[in-house]
């Protein structure tokens, strides 16, 4: 592959391509808020979510401490667009008004969403989505407080997944997702895409996925895993450094 010609730029946004998530949570009146977002990433059974701190979802997460991450596929683009530029906050923040946001009291009705009950959290699931991750809040902290380009207050919400529901047609075996069948909806610079064809075999995928889940193995493997984890934590674990005014909630 030839080396491309690079040019230094200062883009307005850094939406390089991440999965779209419909976050469902409960409002103070018992109603349901469903918010599309794409600032999300996973590590193990934990997920980090990035939000405008003024959003109704953040207020709900601070109060309820739980939500459902409904992962959108290409089939859900119409739902995402129906909810775009809406907010569950009756008092629409000025910066959102300037971006064209408007208050929507009943988001599920507007997007014609089918709500399904969850099994461990009170927030319902979005039936149309093929993957549902029930989650509880592990922590909320301010984000990018020292970044002069961040024009609004932002926060990072860490959630821990407690229950997973998937469309059975995505499964390759009992509990393995077939990547050829799962086509997540992606947002790249505000445009919606699904993934393309497989471009190469992955060296990382040569081993068994079970190696990443010793907690599903026998008692001896689980015990050995805990011992190795304790050693790794002692040698490589990091403390919350905060900085720029950041502080864990």
For the structure shown, list the relevant keywords.
249 residues; alpha+beta; Pnp Oxidase, Chain A; 7-stranded antiparallel β-sheet
Describe this structure in words.
It contains five helices and 14 strands. The protein has about 250 residues and is an alpha+beta fold.
Topology (elements, then pairings):
Blueprint: E1 18-19, E2 21-26, E3 32-37, E4 40-43, E5 46-52, H1 56-64, E6 66-71, H2 77-83, E7 86-87, H3 94-98, E8 102-103, H4 107-110, E9 115-116, E10 125-126, E11 131-143, E12 154-166, E13 185-188, E14 191-194, H5 219-236
Parallel strand pairs: 7-8
Antiparallel strand pairs: 1-13, 2-3, 2-6, 4-5, 5-12, 6-11, 9-10, 11-12, 13-14
Summarize the structure.
The protein is an alpha+beta fold and 249 residues long.
Architecture of the largest domain, according to CATH? Roll
Task: Report the portion of residues in β strands.
Answer: 25-35%
What is the count of β-strands?
A: 14
State the CATH class of the largest domain: Mainly Beta
Mean model confidence by pLDDT: 93
The CATH homologous superfamily of the largest domain is named Electron Transport, Fmn-binding Protein, Chain A
User: What count of helical segments does DSSP give?
Assistant: 5
Largest sheet descriptor: 7 strands, antiparallel
Structural class: alpha+beta
């Amino acid at each position: 592959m030839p080396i491309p010609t690079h040019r230094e730029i200062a883009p307005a946004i850094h939406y390089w391509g991440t999965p779209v998530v419909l976050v469902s949570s409960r409002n103070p009146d018992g109603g349901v808020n469903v918010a599309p977002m794409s600032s999300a990433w996973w590590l193990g059974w934990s997920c980090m979510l990035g939000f405008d701190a003024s959003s109704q979802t953040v207020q709900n997460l601070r109060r309820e401490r739980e939500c459902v991450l409904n992962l959108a596929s290409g089939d859900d683009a119409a739902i995402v667009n129906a909810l775009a530029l809406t907010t569950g906050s009756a008092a629409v923040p000025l910066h959102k008004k300037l971006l064209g946001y408007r208050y929507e009291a009943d988001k599920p009705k507007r997007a014609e969403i089918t709500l399904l009950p969850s099994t461990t959290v009170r927030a319902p699931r979005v039936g149309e989505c093929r993957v549902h991750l029930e989650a509880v809040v592990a922590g909320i902290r301010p984000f990018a407080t020292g970044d002069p380009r961040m024009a609004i207050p932002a926060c990072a919400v860490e959630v821990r997944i407690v229950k997973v529901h998937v469309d059975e047609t995505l499964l390759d075996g009992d509990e393995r997702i077939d990547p050829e069948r799962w086509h997540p909806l992606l947002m790249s610079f505000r445009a919606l895409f699904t993934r393309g064809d497989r471009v190469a075999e992955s060296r990382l995928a040569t081993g068994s996925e079970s190696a990443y889940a010793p907690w599903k193995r026998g008692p001896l493997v689980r015990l050995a895993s805990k011992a190795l984890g304790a050693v790794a934590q002692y040698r490589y674990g990091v403390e919350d450094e905060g900085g720029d005014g950041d502080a864990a909630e």
